[in-house]
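user: can you give me the structure for this one chain? tokens are fine.
assistant: on it. calling the predictor now.
[tool input]
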Amino acid sequence: MENLIRLEGHFDNKMAQYFKKCLRSCRPEIPIYLRIDSLGGNLHPMNLMSRLVYYATYNKGCSFIAQIVYAESAALMFAVNIPKRQITSKSLAVIHLPVLAKGVSLLEQGLDKKRDFAIQYLASKTKLQAPQILKLDMVPLTNKELMTYGIATELVEDFETASA
């Protein structure tokens, strides 16, 4: 399929570089599908990828459609950045608010700021309110819940037909 970028695995610098390379080869006149199947990863590469989407949208005229197979943590944050988000009946997602990484020293205040940012960001991009987001932290969400909460905007039979 033309203009399909598969985002599978860990959101890290390697994925951000892969994403940047893939974007260069996409044709801006047709939608770019971002098939997400990821446990998440680091916020810094996710932010870089989000800025690339923003740049491609506003400076190159590209349009994007996120296709959520499975998205957790930074992968879900990236997905909700895309205005059009498709899921299938088998799609799942997990809101995973930031936690201290093993072996990383971070002041408690720094972690609180990251968590607050994630909560505010998800609330601004979905139908969820902050208390709901806290309640749903680490809870697997079904396709029905993804639609109800505005995490997804469209339920499709399968991604291949939706992308054709």
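assistant: here you go. The chain has a mean pLDDT of 91. The chain has one domain: 4-163.
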